[in-house]
Amino acid sequence: MTIAERISEIKNQLPENVTLIAVSKTKPAEMIKEAYFGGQRHFGENKVQEMTDKYAVLPRDIHWHLIGHLQTNKVKYIAPFVSLIHSIDSLKLLAEINKQAKKSNRIINCLLQFHIAQEETKFGLSETEAKELLMDASIPTLQNINIVGVMGMASFTKNKDQIRSEFGHLRRIFDQLKNDHFKHKNDFKEISMGMSGDYLLAIEEGSTMVRVGSSIFGGR
Ligand SMILES: *Cc1c(COP(=O)(O)O)cnc(C)c1O
Questions:
Q1: Which ligand 1 atom is at minimum distance from the Cα of 212?
Q2: Does residue 60 have a pLDDT over 70?
Q3: Ligand 1 pocket, 49 CB below 6 A?
Q4: CB proximity list for 1: less than 8 A, separation 6 or greater
Q5: Span 153-177, mean pLDDT?
Q6: pTM for this prediction
Q7: Model pLDDT for residues 116-140, shown as the tens digit of each residue
Q8: Dmax over Cα atoms in the chain, in whole Å?
Q9: 19, CA 20 to 30 Å: which among 84, 126, 196, 212?
Q10: In degrees rounded to 5, what are phi and psi of residue 75?
Q11: Helical segments of 120-194, H only
Q12: Phi then psi dihedrals of residue 40, to 5 deg
């Protein structure tokens, strides 16, 4: 199967409100072009350097999603063009994104990343940390960022019940935040969860964005 065929096969399984982000990390620009000419517009990268390199040589109407951990000193490189940053895990990072977005005369959409997996190594906020962040007095002054939802990664396990319960947990975090902090904000609506191995489960639990890499581009 071609890349475009794999993408349309996945898209056929997604409800209309779910965005497919083709995760192209480690794959060459040529493969992204193949997907692009098949109609795919949303691509995910986890490294700033790789994303900026690809941005430079690929069509300008691509929506670039930063899905990996982001260091504050690298925000400036992606601020002029990034479409959505999925990996907000501190107020400091949010403040830097706001600063760099302002310089580019943009408002950058962001997701709060939550730690829902059992593994220690995965980045992300706890619910308590997120509440603290959102209650901070500086938040209303950050006018060049827009928090539009949440992101999370399930544990690396074959146990479907566990994965489902972790996705369910993220969904409940989303509902809670919506109710407590974003009640009247219509664009707080995204739940970024689900990868190649678990995107169908994620959709059942309410995902609005799935991040699929290896099922489209092959193993890494
Ligand atoms: C690599 C990656 C994905 C895609 O993983 P696949 O298993 O290849 O689909 C999704 N989300 C994040 C955060 C990633 O780093």
A1: 9
A2: yes
A3: no
A4: 9
A5: 97
A6: 0.97
A7: 998 876 689 999 999 999 999 999 9
A8: 52
A9: 126
A10: -55, -40
A11: 127-135, 160-181
A12: -75, 135
